Amino acid sequence: MTDYGYRISEPGEDVKTCSDLKCVVTSKYPLLKGGLQGSGNISDSGYENASGTIEIEHNLGYIPVVRVFMDNGDEFIEIPHVVWQAGFYIFDTSYKHTTVNKITITASLWISGETATIDQDYKYYISNEKVNI
Amino acid sequence: MGNFGSAVSKKTYDVKSSADRFLIYNSSFQTLKIYKKVKVTGTLPITITHNLGYYCPFEVIAHNTPKFAYSDPWKRIPFSDGAFYNSVNARGYTDKIIIVDGDVTPEDSNSYTVIIYLDNFATVSESSINTATTTKGSNDDYGIRISKDGYDVKDCTDEQLVLSSEQDFGEIIHKKGIDNDRTGQAIVSHNQNTPLKFLAFQKNTSESFITPTVRRGRTTLTLDGAYIDSDYLYMGVDTGSGGFSSSYDFYYIMFKNQL
Predict the structure, then answer these.
(1) Domain A32-130: which topology?
(2) Which one of A52, B145, B163, B198 is CB 3.0 to 4.6 Å from A42, fit for a cystine?
(3) What are φ and ψ of residue A132, in 5° steps?
């Protein structure tokens, strides 16, 4: 099954003889391609040990590779992430959990002395690549 | 070398005039290719050999209970005693990936999916980008499909394809490289005026492995971990309470995909 396929080389590389690493595309190695993407908002009560959770249904029937980024104003940081800052007593943790039909995103942000509800924006990208093999 | 090549646009975008971010691939830009995907089970540490001979990007996804629930490999441990502990982590060497245990009690036997990419971190400078047409057309009865080895391209599922113009995003590399020997935060420009998807790894200069750069520990809010804004990718390892006690190399890939 190796004497056929499709190769596109990078500029300046001979597609007939270059290494796989110098190919933009080769049918030998798949690309991590996307299927679903979107954005939303998680609300956290702001109290210690509280957290906000949101579920996103994908219903692919298998567990896909998923990437989720939290939007902290103008900055984006991928989850999972955990922050604990001495002195300011800030504990911020976000993580995701994926099944064959949905993603669950959990975010918690607690700032000592503050109890205001905190809204956290996020963006998610669901690949068609399976995790469960 | 610019007047030939190959490009595939996303479904409904005109391949001749669409902006680069609406392309599945373009032979002018590198892509991220999956070299190996394996499932491993056992008690940590677990070693997965790749023998590529260079540091490569990778991802580790934990299979937690209940069955068919998968989550991030780094577990969060509350700071009941005022400290934070790392848990499961992964180290990438030039010939293998090792999933390692953290600071606390040993993990139970577990399963992990490890995705190893073929690509390295050789420098790719940001190039001028085509920001032409960004509007969709209407004709969707055309396109390209390339299947994985052993699958019929005419009727296989999307997951069995190497690429398809029906896929909504590909991982086209905008800029990559290594920022060496930083004792503070590494700041890398991307000049796209919008946040981009990225991968970031760190390597303590006294060590021989890379590990994903995530924000996870005692830190200030601005200097630890990897994050991106409209102008720069920021990477740092704050090993103390707001200080940098070690020198690190940062390995990064930024994609054309906008966040």
Answers:
(1) Immunoglobulin-like (2.60.40)
(2) A52
(3) -75, 105
